[in-house]
């Protein structure tokens, strides 16, 4: 199998949606695709066999977390990430840039790279474009990302340009550094530019023309209203080459994947489906339900009629409700499987609709039916998660 | 399939060990057997398919916990415990007596039954021998136990006799009450008598001669030194009928199952294998290891060479170590599967050794090789767990 090949199987004429096939050393990916996130070399509470059964074709793992624990040299010694976590399909690793950016006052940026303190023990680490290539080579993932800078929302146009240009310089260095390591790995470029339409288009043109076989769009879904994220894509997609797969980093919810596909995105990753599942939020075609709610206490049917996931085939909603109410670990698994399966079925439906030409109808019907979590709920959730992270960082910075 | 049938397939001449077959409405059980415990209608973190794959033939569930959440009438409405928890093999439910006894100052005993306050919300509940039969009929388990009194350790001979005699009277009432419900359920008798050899023998004779198709030995493993537990069995087993299966309630560790088998026990249940797994204690043929220990950080091989459990077939000890160090939920599953598989393989080895006549050699070799947790470690663990429970009860009693 070649290291990497992207083929466009169909395009949706009225939109920018496409259906494609990506070949990697560990198997084929059909796009559009949702990639479950296995931050610490495990998709929380779900086994590799269950991911396969839910339709997963590629998963994502986090370089930042794995470089700290258990460390990339150890993973290398143990045969690489695939062997380590018992997942023989494709793996994409991010660069760690986003997490380093999230550390706030625990990190320092220079032209050379980023110095940061571990959120675990306060120990100091340095990430440079070259070092990230080395770490990802040790991890042995199929698709790797270069170190980038993710600007905060909001930020000034000057800051946005500075971060983008620095990212571009780092990406050039990453391309050079990558040559030292595994030819079977594929380095994607990252498009930045914050929320400046011109910068987004400029970044897409520049990075799109560099010899990256695929492109990730970074710096979105960082707190901005959703409409602003879509507006950025409207400037990015037309500036990108047609023949490279496009990955929308860290996005998203079911409705995001449906909309993002129409705006030309092929690959999506997000912790949201598994994170909200752990808090009781389960996807149905009408929106998210809270399985903790008393209305599920006596429901003999599945979470969603017609769903063929492992959970819905074998357990009543009442049982799943019982498990979360009694804080049983099996709940986290059953809930996560349901949501991952939902996302992957949605990706297959999107692909089928693009191939048979009905994507715009599918999108409009889905969005008419599916009630997303409100902006207010999203903001509240984000603030809660940010506060939890800030508390953790404060503890570290006192060390 | 008949509701219940016990056949002795082989006996070990120099000991009291036997290999048997139990038929139940939900399948066959080969004895000696270890029964994983699914307190709240789930064996913590393990799926029914994984229990099957680990060799489980019967599981135990707790009446006390299920009557409080989600309630036995609801489980009945939803098709019974088997459907509710998606386990189609045999299920044994205890009577709730042990848990009520554990509540200490939250419960009151009378001739009629036990009144207790829920550890969850302080609400008052009454358990009588008749009520327990009704609850277990609603749960729909295959083997059910009658309400009994589990004396504390230590207790006076007078208290021991009183509790035993009350238990006997309750068991007679349970036999009568059971007639009102499901004929396909099998009611075991419970032998009590605390730590008085004469009472133990008396209880075994009386309950053994009542029309119970099987017998559970209760009130042991409640804090006494192990030798004292075995001493009680030396008085109980000879007084029991040969043709009824014998269940040693709440026991035990690997070495307990090996020794108990030689003392005539056929069935064992205990949370220990899954509980210690959750804290990092994993079984090997040389004793328990702590997978959290730094020595596993780089081990590319499995937890135990030659183990064919799902965990050992697919994951390095280093990965399992990484999961517990990062507090990943998948750890609890992989650790529990390993220990359950260990217990069930041990049960199969015991059975094979009884059938081929080598049980005494197998026992002696196992005990020579396997280093059990010391009495001190056991006592410390127990005190920790008791303290945690006491704190919970104190909160309730203030309500």
TrEMBL record, chains A, B:
Residues binding Zn(2+): 307, 309, 312, 338
Domain of life assignment: Bacteria
Region (RNA binding): 250-256, 274-278
Co-factor: note: Binds 1 zinc ion per subunit.
tRNA-guanine(15) transglycosylase-like domain boundaries: 17-370
Function text: Catalyzes the base-exchange of a guanine (G) residue with the queuine precursor 7-aminomethyl-7-deazaguanine (PreQ1) at position 34 (anticodon wobble position) in tRNAs with GU(N) anticodons (tRNA-Asp, -Asn, -His and -Tyr). Catalysis occurs through a double-displacement mechanism. The nucleophile active site attacks the C1' of nucleotide 34 to detach the guanine base from the RNA, forming a covalent enzyme-RNA intermediate. The proton acceptor active site deprotonates the incoming PreQ1, allowing a nucleophilic attack on the C1' of the ribose to form the product.
Protein family membership: Belongs to the queuine tRNA-ribosyltransferase family.
Name of the protein: Queuine tRNA-ribosyltransferase
Taxonomic lineage of the native organism: Bacteria, Bacillati, Chloroflexota, Ktedonobacteria, Ktedonobacterales
